[in-house]
Amino acid sequence: MEYTKLKYINQYKSKSINPAKTPDTIFEMYSVPIYATGHPEYLRGDEIASNKAIVRKNDILLCKINPRINRVWVVSDESGKQNIASSEWIVIRNSEYNPEFLAWYFRTPKFQKFMTSEITGIGGSLTRAQPKCVAEYPVPVLNRKKQDEIVNILDKCKFVIDSRKRELLELDNIIKARFVEMFGSIHESTGYPYLALKDLSDVISGGTPSRGKAEFWNNGTIPWVKTTELKNNVITDVDEYITEEGLVNSSAKLVPAGTILVAMYGQGKTRGMTAYLDIEASTNQACACILPSDKIDSMFMWKYFELSYDKLRSLAQGAGQPNLNGNMIKNFKVLVPPIEMQKSYVNFVNQVDKSKVKVQKA
What we know:
The chain is built from 11 helices and 23 strands.
């Protein structure tokens, strides 16, 4: 495929406006914070504090702040009002290109790699792609008919994927609705008791493996579970294995299949995530290992943890990055209906999960 540099196709000539000079005018504003909604916001001139770039329908906006997030937006001109954009966007305009074709290209891993290759800043939201560098990056040269064909295919793919995601969301809602139907609200009294985990199970923390000697760590046979592998999932395999010598020469513990793991530490959404261990494995101190007693069905307890994800995360404490601790886990209360009802709910969830697997494969 033939390529050219972005600067050779970009017809945009920078032009700015100070909205505050027309305080009563409504502007269609494309800002980075509002990007996630998929729609611009509408602001009066006196609500906009600084100069903005004047853009128009079919301009492509390429976000230069924290380019790893890969935000690409095509100006839609939803209202017919003056379209403006914040200075955190690089604006690309070309009347001969299908704007959606360029947007799809800018979203590719290939182009994202370019965008993150020459950034400035110290990390995270402070990093920025440099417009002068971006102007040198390659873009494909294709006739408009071929562009339109590609866009049509990718739009159809996106529609199917979005439809499947909506199906998965609805299936999750069915699981929650069934719980409420059978037991009532997750964390409010329903006539069934709520018991602390310490009264329903053994709660232990993982340990620390011996990394001092490579032979203790590498090429072993004992599964080693990391917190990043806890995604409200069933764990049947892992990425790393330690040796028996490594287990003996460390504080790491071996826990049986049927153990529920809870991430006590972790960045982003990791903290509070759980997993059902379907194999015998070892893990570190960042995980709480819960071994349910015969008072509660282990799968029911795990499903209850899934539904309680937000509640569990809210208990975390500490400056900077809040964490959970052993006492928080031990004192966390779990609904305990009759065991027959627990098993009935688990059977229902298993049937829904089978449907979810089919949708995910699709």
